[in-house]
Amino acid sequence: MAQFCGYGGGHERKLSYHRDMTTQYPAIGSKWKERDVRVARTVQIIRYDVAKRRVRIACLETERLTWAKLERFNGKSGGYAPY
């Protein structure tokens, strides 16, 4: 799939997506619970940073935006579980 950049005078760039991106990354808008029992936190997925393998999250309790490593969305201790 090719897409024109909005800048640079009509240069064309190729967009490539990892074929398993939907299974590796949590869905945008989905809500996740922190598995650490010391913290009561629910987050919502805002966007991805595919180059750095991280996810932009918004804490619903504090309304803060932060980044989380992709590996934390695994449902295990020390990570996030689907809400």
Descriptors for this entry?
disordered N terminus; 1 helix; SH3 type barrels; mainly beta; 5-stranded antiparallel beta sheet; 83 residues; 5% helix; two-stranded antiparallel ribbon
Q: The CATH topology of one domain is what?
A: SH3 type barrels
**Category from helices, strands and their pairing:** mainly beta
Strand content: 35-45%
The profile of the biggest β sheet is:
5 strands, antiparallel
The topology string of helices and strands comes to EEHEEEEE
Shape: globular
Structural description of this entry:
Residues 1-9 and 11-16 have low confidence and may be disordered. This protein has a domain at 25-82: SH3 type barrels. The strands form two sheets. Strands 6-5-4-3-7 form a five-stranded antiparallel β-sheet, with no helix packed on it. A two-stranded antiparallel ribbon has the order 1-2. It starts with a strand and ends with a strand. It has one helix at residues 21-24, and strands at residues 2-4, 12-14, 31-34, 42-49, 54-59, 65-69, 80-82. It is 5% helix and 39% strand.
Task: Provide a short characterization of the protein structure.
The longest helix is centred in the first third of the chain and has 4 residues, at 21-24. 5% of the residues lie in helices and 39% in strands. The chain has a 5-stranded antiparallel β-sheet, with no helix packed on it. A two-stranded antiparallel ribbon has the order 1-2.
Fold blueprint:
Blueprint: E1 2-4, E2 12-14, H1 21-24, E3 31-34, E4 42-49, E5 54-59, E6 65-69, E7 80-82
Antiparallel strand pairs: 1-2, 3-4, 3-7, 4-5, 5-6
